[in-house]
Amino acid sequence: MEWFYKFPHMNDDSLRDLKKAIDEGFRTFTRTYGDAIESFFSPLQYFLMQAERFMTQTPWPIVTLIILAIAWFASRSWKVVLACLFTLLAIGYFGMWDDTMRTISMIFVATVLSIVIGIPIGILMSLNDRLQRTVNPLLDVMQTMPSFVYLIPVVMLLGIGRVPGLIAVVIYAIPPIIRLTNLGIRLVDKDVLEAADAFGSSGWQKLKNVQLPLALPTIMAGINQTIMMALAMVVVASMIGVQGLGQPVLKAIANQYFTLGIFNGLAIVGIAVIFDRVSQAYGRRLQKHRETVHG
């Protein structure tokens, strides 16, 4: 009756040989194509370094004014702007300005990359049911896989540094924008699409002038969730050399520095609140505009 209590499994030696063969195959792939892959991501590294240089070397009053201007443009709310100002001043006052700027530059680049990759995939999924059935399981894996696991293949391919951390952040954060772009386009009212067809709109015109504008609030919700998930990866990405607020938190965990961890953790929360409030306010503005224009 041993089989009843102990789940039957592959022979230990066979299982060990299988894992060893997979590991050796990936190492061979890394040795063969690692340099080519690293060269492929060189423009991304340049973009990330320029963004970080701008955020850290620009005088803090100018950076603050830029962030406040973006907050005002997106929300048209003085409450949101004042909340952003208070958060930034508190972060700077407690000596976390440079790390915060590095983190914001990382999140900015990760969000731009997620938008550039995720929105076209979401559009294609909304137009093709077969593609949606193929991509959805991959998105499920990306959202449920422990975040630490993403670091293993990325580090083996690209080593330690900013770009591997950025790629891990994008892989972890991109599923919401793909899903919500697909969902937003699919939820566009069929009567509106029939009217567009009646006026002789082509497929591209219908997508550009009807579906994307009406789906924009839902897409903005996807961007919001992508930003939140990217911020959640900051501490994990710091394990492979990504500079920013994650490294002091990691140091605090390793050395049991309670105050260091709390202060930097609250700074991450502050950035998350800024991004969340600004993007949500912009999404609500788009929603009100849609209701006004389309009744």
User: Helix proportion of residues, in percent?
Assistant: over 70%
Share of residues in strands: under 5%
- Uncertain regions: pLDDT < 50 for 5+ in a row? none
Shape verdict: globular
* N-to-C order of helices and strands: HHHHHHHHHHHHHHH
Which structural class fits the helix and strand makeup? mainly alpha
Largest sheet: none
What is the β-strand count?
Answer: 0
Number of helices: 15
Distance between the termini: 69 Å
Average of pLDDT: 85
Tell me the Rg in angstroms.
23 Å
Main attributes of the structure:
295 residues; mainly alpha; globular
Provide a descriptive summary of the structure in words:
The protein has 295 residues and is mainly alpha-helical. It has 15 helices and no strands. Helix 2 (12-40) packs across helix 8 (147-158), helix 6 packs antiparallel against helix 7 (129-144) and helix 9 packs across helix 12. The model has no long low-confidence stretch (mean pLDDT 85).
Give a brief outline of the structure:
This protein is an all-alpha fold and 295 residues long. It is 86% helix and 0% strand.
